[in-house]
Amino acid sequence: MPLYRRGEIWWAQFKHQGQRIRLSTGERDLAAAKQEARRLRVQHESEAGPGGRQQGVTLAVLEQLDVERVERKGMDAGRPKTIENLHRNLQRHLGGEHRDIVTLTLPELDDYEGLRRAETHRGRPTSGQTIRRERGALIRSMRIAKRRGLIDRYPFDLEDLDTIESDPKDTRQAGKLWSARQIDGVLDALSDKAKTAGYDRMLRLIQRTGMRFEEFHRCSGRWVKPAPRGSGAASLLIIDEIGAKTRTARTVPLLAEDVATIRAMGGTFGRKKFNHALELASARAGLQGVLTPRDLRKWYLSAAAVADPLAAQRLGGHSNIATTGLYLGAEIGRAIKAGLGAARSATTRGHTKGPQRKRVGGKAQ
């Protein structure tokens, strides 16, 4: 929403029913003004409605309600922008930001998937995961509006919506299981500039905690908590349900050097990108491929799964033990292959009375 200053005060500006609305936020601080501007817009449109009716709520109001939700939960600064993008895509295909949500129809929402899949981004079609997140944002914000009394009913039965299936996983993004020696070689081969920036310490932190990269970006000193006496951990890393991808809170033990890394650099994690540095270091180390942060998580969870699969499930934040099993399988793949070979060998002999013994002088030896 556009903001401008009059003296030291920020003012909000937006269109409603074809008219330009200007409202004072009463705030001098820009961040506080943005939050107040969203509140003023929700209040104005919920009172006036898109057609002057008391109960009218627009798609723009739903966007603001959803943004307010993530801000209240204290999510990272980039999350509101992500939420705004989800709603902007909805608005493009559902009649614009001033569309009254009570006029939405079930066929429109069912057709939305086809409209989005027909669009491409960077040469690739829109994924089912993205479309599901967009429609989920719409449903979530409608529920917020109903809880607040802004609407008294949904425009259709939410249970009647067709399921949007996820696309198959992109194999190019699948984590690779490198050995500890290979990982050490790459991190040792980081340039002096990368090491000065602390890239080696940050990447070790990911390797020793199994954090997802988006979780690493949000990680800060407030996630570090004291460890129980006698646990052997210097501290605990508490990844809350807001920061976790699966919305499942989990606890990860920390070494002393990783605690120091988080406390010293935690405020800068969100701006870090390791792609170029890891490409150069992987080439210097002679790796056939490029080490990625995802590979570091896979190494951690594979090692943990071999020791204790159930514990690895908790450390990884997996809602299903079968997901943890994928990491376990990566580590013992060769053992499984050898076991299958032995089993198949036994099957081929299954109709015999046992291994054939060499006969010497007419007697079995």
Description:
- This protein is mainly α.
- It is 50% helix and 12% strand.
- The protein has helices at residues 30-48, 59-72, 79-93, 106-117, 128-147, 180-188, 192-196, 199-209, 213-218, 256-265, 275-284, 293-307, 309-316, 321-331, 333-348, and strands at residues 3-6, 9-16, 19-27, 120-121, 124-125, 224-226, 235-239, 250-254, 359-360, 363-364.
- The strands form four sheets. A three-stranded antiparallel β-sheet has the order 1-2-3. A three-stranded antiparallel β-sheet has the order 6-7-8. Strands 4-5 form a two-stranded antiparallel sheet.
- A hairpin with a 2-residue loop joins β1 and β2.
- Mean pLDDT is 79; it is low at 50-55, 330-336 and 349-360.
Short structural description:
The protein is mostly helical. It is built from 15 helices and 10 strands.
What's the topology here?
Elements: E1 3-6, E2 9-16, E3 19-27, H1 30-48, H2 59-72, H3 79-93, H4 106-117, E4 120-121, E5 124-125, H5 128-147, H6 180-188, H7 192-196, H8 199-209, H9 213-218, E6 224-226, E7 235-239, E8 250-254, H10 256-265, H11 275-284, H12 293-307, H13 309-316, H14 321-331, H15 333-348, E9 359-360, E10 363-364
Antiparallel strand pairs: 1-2, 2-3, 4-5, 6-7, 7-8, 9-10
Helix pairs in contact: 1-2, 2-3, 2-5, 3-5, 4-5, 6-11, 8-10, 8-12, 12-13, 12-14, 13-14
